[in-house]
Amino acid sequence: MRLSMFHVTVDPFEVVVASDDGGRVQVLPRGRHRRDRRGSYVPVSTARRLIQLAPQEIPTADGAQVKATAVAEVTVVDPVLALSFEQPEQVIYLAVQLAMRDAFADLEVAEVAKAARHDPALTQRVLDAAVAAGARVGYEVASVAVKDVLIPAELRAATMALITAKAQGQAQLEAARAETAALRTLANGAKILEDHPALAKLRMVQAIPMGSSLSLRVDDGAD
User: Fold this and answer.
1) 146 and 55 in a common domain
2) Helix crossing, 153-195 with 197-207: angle to 10°?
3) Are 55 and 95 in the same domain?
4) Are 59 and 142 within one domain?
5) Does residue 64 belong to any structural domain of this protein?
6) Mean pLDDT, to the nearest integer, of 1-8?
7) DSSP-assigned letter for residue 152
8) Which of 102-106, 126-130, 172-176 is predicted least confidently?
9) Is the per-residue pLDDT at 168 higher than 80?
10) Pairing label, strands 65-76, 139-150
11) Would residue 211 count as lying in a domain?
């Protein structure tokens, strides 16, 4: 907002709430307006902005404590109503904070991180609370994102140990399967050689290294 002796200029992405000495209030949109020297003018930003919640320690259904944050995208849609609150964005902040606590209270710690990323019902629950709070103070809440959910360090360590154990067990299972398949192949080969002696002799000849000498004994059939 820019004030001159005769005009009020309202900049982009803002409005100005003007009131005269008779108590009449009006909202001035972008542009230049005639100034009432006895009036008062309060600029209000209409640009979209983010309300960032500080990390919250929130109890879960099984008594654990997790940390989480959230961010809400908001804009002023009723500047007169917004100015009637000293800190209107704190109303939205508190609503998001309480909604997160209520939502997490229904979940066990193992479910919290997954729900924050993949459960639209949880995000919608928090968004509904923020939208209702925003309407009370003249704000529109476009979105809310629950993010940076951190479970306690000891539970993270236990989870990693479980994942490692599962991976090691799977690797051992695959190794056992491969060994069983190899033994089965060897057993089948041994059975074939046992049933076909000539094939066994041929296989032995094939196994002799190149350049080696081979002595053959001719059996004349005499006793």
Assistant:
1) yes
2) 120
3) yes
4) yes
5) yes
6) 88
7) -
8) 172-176
9) no
10) antiparallel
11) no
> Looking at the domain assignment, is residue 130 inside a domain?
yes
What is the C-alpha separation between 74 and 145, in angstroms, rounded?
Answer: 12
- Judgement on whether residues 139 and 199 belong to the same structural domain of the protein: no
For residues 56 and 41, membership in a common domain is answered with: no
Residue 95 has pLDDT above 60, yes or no: yes
Number of domains in the chain: 3
Residues 60 and 147 in one domain: yes
* Mean predicted lDDT score pLDDT of the chain: 83
The domain containing residue 14 runs over which residues? 2-45
Sign of CA dihedral 71, 72, 76, 78: negative
Statement: residue 151 has pLDDT above 90: no
Residue 215 has pLDDT above 70, yes or no: no
On whether the CB atoms of residues 13 and 47 are closer than 8 A, the answer is yes
Rounded Cα distance between 223 and 211, Å, is 34
* Whole-angstrom distance, CA of residue 209 vs CA of residue 188: 25
Quick one: pLDDT at residue 152? 64
On whether both 35 and 88 belong to a single domain, the answer is: no
Burial class of residue 9 in the structure, from the number of CB atoms within 10 Å of its CB (0-12 exposed, 13-18 middle, 19+ buried)? middle
For 78: left if phi > 0, alpha if psi spans -120 to 50, otherwise beta; the answer is: beta
For position 179, what pLDDT does the model report?
81
Asked if residue 17 is part of any domain, the answer here is: yes
- Tell me the residue length of the chain: 223
34's CB contacts (< 8 A; 6+ apart) are 6, 7, 8
User: Whole-angstrom Cα distance, residue 123 to residue 39?
Assistant: 44
